[in-house]
Amino acid sequence: MTVHVLSSGWNRYTFSDLLAEHARFVPSDSKWIKGLLAVPFVLYSQPTGVFETNSVSFTQMSEEAHRRYAEIMRDVEVMLDDHIEHQRDNRSLPSKLKLLVPTIGVFFTRLPLEAAFKYQDRKRFISSRRFVSPSFNDVRLVLNSAQIMAVTTYGTLQLATFDGDVTLYDDGESLVPTSPVIPRMIDLMRKNVKIGIVTAAGYTTADRYYDRLHGLLDAIATSRELTPQQRQNIVIMGGEANYLFEFHAESEHLLRPVPRERWLTAEMAAWSDKSIEALLDVAEAALRDCIKTMALPATLMRKDRAVGIIPTDPSIRIPRESLEETVLVVQKILELSVGGRDFDNKVVPFCAFNGGRDVFVDIGDKSWGVNVCQKWFGGGDDAAPIRGENTLHVGDQFLSAGSNDFKARSVGTTAWIASPAETVELLDELADLMGKKIS
Ligand SMILES: [Mg+2]
């Protein structure tokens, strides 16, 4: 019997390791919190209980582990509150959290981590485990629960945006009528929460989106629960931030394209066609080079607002490492040629990302896409857009190269799921908390 976590967990996470790790991994709050939980696991878990009859009782052990984990989560919660204080009054001195995790992002809400941990521990029995320490997934799910609790407790959820592949349906599949996520999305619309499907899929016509989302669109069209007004509570934002469609019951595919001049933000309108073309030309050349140097079984695909590579045959899977390498090469070449990082360059922001089976470079990214939804539902130019703390983006891409869902974190709160089944669980958690708040 190998208690591998005892040897690896204990000495892998020293204080300086946490710092070093975070210099490399931008998006992951989960990693360093996991490191903190590894210590009580090593000290208090009782793996010998499996073969020793006179050891500490199992209940005692799990209660002790639970208490320690909860304390750590509360300590992190307090540290986060202090960070939010610093963020709020724009202090020039960094918070302790900022010193520990230099890449830490903006927080739109506080996070009730202790309560969220207790919730997930009841569900996942984290404290009852003797051989497997609190994992990356455990922490990711605790963070999601904390975020869901926050958006329903400290404010009101007004806008929920969803990624498509892996979030609403399996990679490359579509939202079929039997999908359990559909009634949950309709329930949100019935509660007047606005929905945006913010996907990288960059189709220019309604029929292609209908192919991917027909289960949901048909359900909205035929729902007896939704008022005509509530049926308009959904938009599709394709190509990250490039094609907007609104629900339209009379159209053949239940969607109607919205002309760009009606929704482009002032900043987006300033991206000239010429600069977009020039950026895509550079990206295309870089992608072609990757196909050649790594002999990728891929072909190039150029669209008006994107360029990418797809497998020459749908049955081929390009290795993950090759896809990641391609993203990083293209990203670097683009950054050098347009003189700025992807998300904050002043000419045209772009997003190079690993789509699981392909690599694409899109104009803009999901932060722009979600921001368009915030403005669209916020009531147009003059009215205030829906705010970050009232927005939740649900997606699966937070860690891979380009991680396009992570970009949404700069404009709203986020939940990081790993499968459509997790999205369903998350929406149940959300409905439960929204229900509690009303009563
Ligand atoms: Mg996805």
Automatic annotation (TrEMBL):
Obligatory cofactor(s): Mg(2+)
Catalysed conversion reaction: IMP + H2O = inosine + phosphate
EC category name: hydrolase
Protein keywords: ATP-binding, Hydrolase, Magnesium, Metal-binding, Nucleotide metabolism, Nucleotide-binding
E.C. no: 3.1.3.-
Example GO biological process: inosine salvage
Coiled-coil residue windows: none
Gene Ontology MF annotations: 5'-nucleotidase activity; ATP binding; magnesium ion binding
Function: IMP-specific 5'-nucleotidase involved in IMP (inositol monophosphate) degradation.
Quaternary structure note: Homotetramer.
Family per record: Belongs to the ISN1 family.
Protein name: IMP-specific 5'-nucleotidase 1
Native organism taxonomy: Eukaryota, Fungi, Dikarya, Ascomycota, Pezizomycotina
